[in-house]
Amino acid sequence: MLKHTINPIALRAARSGRGPFSLVRHVGRTTGTVFETPLILAEVPQGFVAELTYGENVSWYRNVVAAHGRCTIIRGGATFAIDRMDRLETAAGMRAFGAPRNLILRLLRRREFRLLHVAGR
């Protein structure tokens, strides 16, 4: 459902550099096709923090894991090469998003966060 409703709007917002969305550009693990997935990411000194709203069984996440943590983030018109992805403690993930977003994440009982490291940081 999201693929055909919210995602097209989020893709346009992310590509324009406005709004809360970033794009994760990743390569399909079986097709080799390049995909762009809109996500809300928190920027931290090492890179970006992603909250896994739908868990580890989503295509973008599985594709990045298959690519050994490599993907590209497009945020505000800038492009960032990601060279690895690590699990992040829940408390650190919550802190990365800051108030009031971390309050919403707590209310929704979100616990799964990943740190996407920008190459060279």
TrEMBL record:
Source organism, top-level taxon: Bacteria
Gene3D superfamilies in the cross-refs: Electron Transport, Fmn-binding Protein, Chain A
Name the UniProt record assigns to this protein: DUF385 domain-containing protein
Biological source species: Pseudolysinimonas kribbensis
